[in-house]
Amino acid sequence: MLHSAFWNHGAGDLDLPPWAVSMLPMLTDLPLKHDNTQQRQDHVGGKREEMRLSSNSPSDGVFLDFLYPPQALAWMHRATGPAWERWERRNARRLPDGFVQTSRGYTSRAYAQAARPRVDEGQVQEQEQDQGYRRGSASKRLGLAPDEAEKLVEEMRASGQEMSDHHSSIQARQKDLEAAYSHSMEDTTGVEFANSPGELAEASSDSMQRLRNTMASFRSSADPARQEKTQELSDRVWKIYDSLDQASKDDVRLKIELLGWLSSFTNNDAEVRCAALYHSIPVDQRTLDVYQAALTGFMRRGRHVQALNLHREANKNIPNGDQVTRTFFKYAVEEHRWQLAMNIKAQYSLLKELRKPGARSSMFWFHVSQIPGLLPKALALAKYLRALDRAGTTNEQVQRFAATFFREALLQEFESSEPGKAKTSTHPQGGTSLPKRSIGRLFRYMQKLEDSTALYERFILSMTSETPRFQYPQLHRVVSYAYLELRKKSGKEYRIPEWLLMRLLERLTSYWDALEKQYEPHHSIRISHITNDWKRDHGKLSRQAVARLLSWHARSGRLDRFEVWYAYLKEHYPGSNLRKDLLWSSIYVHARRADLPKAKEAFEEAIRTTAEQGDMPPLACYNVLLHAHSRADDLEGGLDTLQALIDTGKKPDEFSFHPVMEMLAKRGDVDGVKDLLSQYDVLAQKWREAAFFGSLLNAHVNCGEIEEAEATLKTAIVEVKTGKVRGSLTGSFNIVLTAHALRRNVDATMRTYRWMKAEGIRTNADTFAALIQALTVYGQTHAAYRILREVMSEHGCQPTAFHYALVMTGYVNQGKYAEALEVREHMRVRNIRSTFSSNVIYLKATALQEHVATSNVPAEATAGGGSAAFRKVSPGPLDETLKDLQMVLEASQGNDLAAKQPQSGLGEQESAVAVPAAYFNFLIYIHGRRRCFQAVRQLLRKFNRRADRLEGANGAAQAPIKLLGALMTAHLRAGDYDEVERCWKLAKEQADEIAGTVPVPQLRPASAISAATEESDADIMKITPAMSDDAQEAGFRVVDRDDSNSQISGTAIEAQPKQALMTDTSVTPKAPKPSAGRQHILTRPLRFYLYALARQDRVADILSVVSKLYNQGYTMDNRTWNAFIQLLCRCSPPLVLLAFTLAERFLTPHFPGWAHVARTYSPHDSAKREGLQYIRARYLRPGQLMPMYHTLVLLGSALLRLRSIEAGGRRGALKRDNLKGMERYVGSMRQIRKQAPKTLFAVQSMPTVDDHLQNKLLRRS
User: For residue 688, what is the DSSP state?
Assistant: First the structure.
């Protein structure tokens, strides 16, 4: 009875007797795989490794020898013998684990599973950290290091390639698996098997069967091309074939089978035998497989003559000889053997003369079109033709063949449904994988074809289709080549069809902004070419073409060209009905130029034109007029126009409400935007648009509610995903990104960017504008410039002039004017049209660079705009900058604001006059600081003339607030304080006009309004929202008469910590309260006005002006607040208590403390620009208040003067005419300790620094 272990594969784990275990070698004693380096090293590394291997699997590979008696085992051992064992070891199958598996001598054996390797936890943790983010304690940083900026840039580059990298990683993993599988197959099939079918066939007596078994074993291999010893295998098969009898050799089926089998071998003997077999097969029994197999051998050996003979015979002998032609021609094309390809085509045509030549030619070229990747081969053929032309050996037949081949290649390339693969490039012209110039040369050869005109039309149609394989800007030059060849055909016999001209006109007008960047004077069609050809071939342009041109010129703000084509429309299509749907364009051209008066005139003209036919202007005219109101920021006019639209009975749409929402959002009127949204739901009765959420986000941002903006964005995401809101959220995310960037919060900016990517929201050019701003405000302009040059192109976004303006602004703020001008030159090289924003910063960079060159001031000192930059300068004008200004003005055609991209530098007043005002603004300012007053007067006169041409008012009366601020600087520098006050009054009047809040009325039709009661109207007009007392926040509330005559005691101040320190009863109650988004617009003119008042020793007026503004609702920025407190400290005597109290209330709460100042400590340049020397801060976000270093030093100086006054006991001497009634604002040390303890501590803990400021104010004798 057999032992139970015989039926159990775990028998290797039994306790076996020593003689049974030691009879045969263990697996660890057998030779290793020859190419397994690691396991060979482990095997020969020493006895320790051998012991480890043997101890892990003590019973692996033990045969069941205990079933046999010792005598039988010894006999079998002798029978197998050393010779058989050596042969078996040499031909044994190699396992992947590196051991040799010998053939089973007489029984089965048990395998033990290899132990699964343990995973190192440290490696797993390291991998997890590499794939995620390291978490750590967050700490506030004072700035952004350059290496951190580079990390942000790399992260943005990686995010753009996330999807492609994911696809590439999947392909890489598949390739790794295939490589591993192939490697294992090489290991297992790389040698001959002792038990393979071929070797088993050798023991068979049937040679025919052995031959077929050997061939079958080769075909069943996974990868025949990688079989080793193919020469030996083919020789063995041929020997078997030779050993057959003559009858078997003459078997045609065996010859065909053997020919097909040998055709896959690449050695020379196999190819010779293939040729012999082919010739031995009778012609009438040669099939397609025979010809294909023989042709493969001929092509591989380069036997082209024999291949041509075979090709001729196949086309004569078999009906499907086209397949042989296809294979042969494909080989000739891929090997660039063009003469052979032409011979194949000629031979094919001659052999098929019995059929229609046209049909057979079409079938031949149909087979050619199925060859993949024809375009590169066509370019190679064109190169071959040029060589023939130089040698003078070309002929008409060759050119016709090439033209037809080029036709098939181009049709395959441009009519393919697969998307084109475009490469990204940092070259100024960009580019794709298409060799445009080489492709253009191919069109010239196709003029030899009879249907060349139809072919050119077909090419242009396919390249300008709605879903082309490539974007049109990438194909424009190729289309231009085809169109220029088509123009050569135009004449009496042929006219370019109108549908083709219209298609080209649509593509050119749609992509002209991108085409201008890569425009070339030669081989590039323009819109003028299309219109001229249209007039030449058809007499006049179609009405559809004229409408397209009008909308394009209106969108671009080109008024002169628009008027030309509008006159053309009236001349050739005089009917008013034909022009009704185009009336909106006459309003839109003025709206894009931000010229509201002209837009209103055009709207009135539209009303008169439609009234002649008893009709009203279409809805588009009202919507465009609302857009014009939005461009000019005329909220009241926009609301009136919207009400007029509703009164006409027309149903407003999203384009009617969105311009008004944008004007409310600019003012930070969140409630107004929400109110208008509710009215949109009632009046329009349509789905809300994602752009409406953008307006609401803008309103939150402009009133400083960033957290509410992010909450609104989360709500918008849910609304869009549920289908309640239509549109893309890219613009909404861009608003939040820009808000964080302008507040110098890089962490929040990148967090929002990652959030945007996680939600699957696509990025656009405005997204990268926000990221560029985030880096430039932190002084990392080099990293921002890298985003512009590299990252944007990798994400498929083209930089605009606004992106270049942002980078130039970053360099200017750092005092790197040469780098800013280099960025401008880079923009010019890339042929990007400059806009208002780029022109403004260009003039500023030029002026500052020339100022540095003509003075002894370093560039770093001018970056902050402080007084140190203008101490020692020559009073001469900046001549080069003035020349550049003249060039900019001459190039300006009034459409500076027409570009559909963000604009910076306008301020709050977006109008036609605001554009030249922004150009003159900084130049007037810097010439005023340089005391070049003659140049200031010249610039002002030039601006007035420019404003008159733009139909603005005369002089500084209508100058924008920014320009008035620059004029105040010049007048202040010249000591003309009356002019300073005049400019201040003008600025205050404009601010009250543009910053006032406008309530949103209840929009209803006229019938509903007339039916409403007077009581409800009165209630609407009398609604007054509750407002906080801003005057108390500023510390300027009016006090009672009884308290004004007595000194302020410590008890009174303690009981009323926010009590006013000044009496002012002259506040005008009718002054409008500014909206939340416009409260800051007077801060710069106010600072200059306060300087002028201080120089006139008008301290009471200083306090009165600030008190009035805060009672009205205006705010001051950090620089103006510090200037105000500094002026209080410079008074004689200083108003110490008032200065310390205001600093304690507004500035000190945000003071981060002093930096640790060592001997080698040097303040950072960014801290100097902000006035934060020796303070633990380098940047300030907009609206953030903090005491400057200069302010704290002046507070310390005022404190010393107060102590001197108290020590001298000269309180009676404080009463002066200019300080009458304000002696109590001087205060005492005891009051300061109670009212401003934090400010006092900040002053007293100020580090001692040997600088000019402390030496002058704190250490003077």
Answer: E
Residues near 504 by Cβ (< 8 Å), separated by ≥ 6? Answer: 460, 464, 479, 483, 525, 530
CA distances, 323 to each of 284, 289, 311, 368 (Å): 18, 10, 10, 11
In this predicted model, what pLDDT tens digit does every residue of 557-584 receive, in sequence order? 889 999 999 999 988 888 766 678 889 9
Q: How far apart are CA 292 and CA 966, in angstroms?
A: 87
The mean-pLDDT minimum among 124-128, 986-990, 1147-1151 falls in 124-128
Distances, alpha carbon 1006 to alpha carbons 836, 1011, 1135, in Å: 42, 9, 60
Which whole-number Å values give the CA distances from 747 to 144, 732, 741, in the listed order? 10, 19, 9
H-helix or E-strand spanning residue 689? strand 688-689
Q: Are 991 and 1082 in contact (CB under 8 A)?
A: yes
From residue 543, how far is each of 546, 569, 581 by CA, in Å? 5, 8, 11
List strand residue ranges (DSSP E) for 1124-1172, in order: none
Residue type, 55: S
Q: Is residue 414 within 8 Å of residue 449, measured between CB atoms?
A: no
This prediction's pTM: 0.74
pLDDT band at 956 (very low <50, low <70, confident <90, very high): very low
pLDDT of 798 > 90? The answer is no
Q: What is the dihedral of CA 993, 998, 1001, 1006, to 10 degrees?
A: 10
pLDDT of residue 147: 65
| Helix, strand, coil % over all residues of the chain, rounded to 5 | 65, 0, 35
Question: What DSSP line would sit under 460-501, residue for residue?
Answer: HHHHTSSS-SS-HHHHHHHHHHHHHHHHHH-SSS----HHHH
CA distance 958 to 949: 14
Residue 786 CA to residue 574 CA, distance in Å, equals 54
What phi and psi values does residue 996 have, to the nearest 5 degrees?
-65, 150
Q: Give the separation between CA 162 and CA 44, rounded to whole angstroms.
A: 46
Question: How high is the pLDDT of residue 143?
Answer: 54
Those residues with Cβ within 8 angstroms of residue 455's Cβ, 6 or more apart along the chain or in another chain: 407, 446, 449
Q: What is the DSSP letter of 190?
A: S
Angle between helices 498-510 and 452-463 (to 10 degrees): 30
pLDDT of residue 1147: 93
What is the spatial distance between Cα 617 and Cα 580, in angstroms, rounded to a whole number? 8
The per-residue pLDDT for 720 is: 93
* Largest Cα span, the chain: 143
Specify the range with the lowest mean pLDDT, choosing from 51-65, 732-746, 1185-1199.
Answer: 51-65
Q: Does the pLDDT at position 661 exceed 70?
A: yes
Query: How many angstroms separate the CA atoms of 275 and 984, rounded?
Result: 103
Phi, psi of 688 (to 5 degrees): -75, 155
Instruction: Tell me the C-alpha distance between 813 and 807, whole Å.
Output: 10
Backbone torsions φ then ψ of 815, nearest 5 degrees: 80, 15
Per-residue pLDDT at 983 exceeds 70 = yes
Long-range contacts of 534-542, Cβ-Cβ distance < 8 Å, separation of 24 or more: 534/498, 534/501, 536/490, 537/490, 537/495, 537/496, 538/495, 538/498, 540/572, 541/568, 541/572, 542/498, 542/502
Cα–Cα distance list, 435 to 322, 423, 474, 504, 570 (Å):
33, 12, 10, 21, 44
Among 259, 260, 280, 328, residue whose Cα is nearest residue 300: 328
Residues 6+ apart with CB under 8 A from 52: none
Quick one: which of 813, 823, 809, 805 has its CA closest to 860?
813
What angle separates helix 374-391 from helix 396-414, to the nearest 10 degrees? Answer: 160
* 445 touches 385 (CB < 8 A): yes
Give the bridge partners for 688, in sequence order.
Answer: 725
Q: Would strands 688-689 and 725-726 be described as parallel, antiparallel, or unpaired?
A: parallel
Residue position matching structure tokens 């085509």? 345
